[in-house]
Amino acid sequence: MSAGVGGTAAVLHGLGERLVLEEVRWSEPAPQEVLVRIEASGICRSDLTVSRIDNGFPLPLILGHEIAGVVERVGSAVTSLSPGDHVVACPVNHCGRCRSCRIGEPFRCSDHAATQRRADEEPRVSADGRSLTQFIGIGGFSTHTVMHENLVVRVPRELPFHVACLLGCGVATGLGAALHSARVGPGDTVLVIGCGGVGLNVVQGARLAGARRIIAVDRNPAALALATELGATEALQADEVDVVAAVKEITGGGVSHAFEVIGVPDTVGQAMDALRKGGTAYLVGVQRPDAVLGIPFRHFFEQKGIRGVAMGSTVPHVHIPEYADLYLQGRLYLDALVANRIPLADVNDGFDRLLDGALARSVIEFA
Ligand code: APR
Ligand code: ZN
Ligand code: ZN
């Protein structure tokens, strides 16, 4: 057993149960790993989902995957990071060597196991000699983490930790969907259905791309107010208006890009209906893998397309430093996305806020 470091983590022992604070032990980083002291950790909806529904992650499990912190130690083969670096984690887990990685598409990596320790190696984190699972190889609801260097991106020191942590998941997913998956540009007309943590960042991405119109749709008026603050040019309340008719009227026939950012079949249909000829719908919202979407053929006769999107087609080491710059220049708004700053001991309250339909993020801070 190597020296490692002791700390505290919020641990999930059974699906649907509350997280329990425990003393844990992180092992010494292997050659390609880094030990990070976590300063801030965002509570993302997928943490909540995985705490309630079996997604195949062995228990006990340390959730959390949206972190910012400071590198404390680096493994012997790490050359791009040093102790003292401020970093964020990005869950675009990638080996760096497969074909997708080599052609600049790490979000399509075919070898996720390459960045994890093998079962016969010492576990990265344990409690009382029992090994714990790190969610997405990160395990962010914890004072420390040991991660493969490919998941770790250096960010400027001026970036406050409580907003920096959002860059890796919520911001990368939403901003990237508009900027990289869809490559929105000036003159484009954009529809964003669902303006939660991710959809609000699709709105921001479309604004940064210079889209001509950005139409936000949500059934929650508070979400629409925030969407307007972040760049929507029109806001439509889902249960009050005929969304498709309103979009067609505003745009004179339909949008070029429609983003579904909820994850339900009905709104996928709405996205397709609201497209102009030749437009494309992007499915950012996650549905059950076996969900069946009934898409009428007339859409394809009108040359429309439909595309799945994951993690906003993010290339972590290229895009995250760009987003950090945009924030520091005042062009990317992140402060409005943090509603609540809490200690690790209140992590279960953060989950409760999500269950209550809270809009913006709760961020755990480690003082
Ligand atoms: N019509 C309009 N708006 C809706 C509807 C509906 N039928 N149902 C939900 N909404 C709105 C909610 O009011 C909320 O503002 O959609 C938004 C969803 O936001 P969040 O719950 O915060 O979810 P978010 O974290 O943004 O993720 C959305 O994207 O990446 C995926 O896995 C993620 O599937 C999830 C989706
Ligand atoms: Zn996330
Ligand atoms: Zn790869």
TrEMBL record:
Top-level taxon of the source organism: Bacteria
UniProt xrefs under Gene3D superfamilies: Medium-chain alcohol dehydrogenases, catalytic domain, NAD(P)-binding Rossmann-like Domain
A GO BP annotation: formaldehyde catabolic process
Cofactor(s) this protein requires: Zn(2+)
Gene Ontology CC entries for this record: cytosol
InterPro entries: ADH-like_C (IPR013149), ADH-like_N (IPR013154), ADH_Zn_CS (IPR002328), ER (IPR020843), GroES-like_sf (IPR011032), NAD(P)-bd_dom_sf (IPR036291)
Location of the Enoyl reductase (ER) domain: 14-364
GO MF annotation terms: S-(hydroxymethyl)glutathione dehydrogenase [NAD(P)+] activity; zinc ion binding
UniProt entry keywords in alphabetical sequence: Metal-binding, NAD, Oxidoreductase, Zinc
Family under the similarity heading: Belongs to the zinc-containing alcohol dehydrogenase family.
PANTHER family, per the entry: ALCOHOL DEHYDROGENASE, ALCOHOL DEHYDROGENASE CLASS-3
The protein's name in its UniProt record: Alcohol dehydrogenase
Source organism per UniProt: Microbacterium album
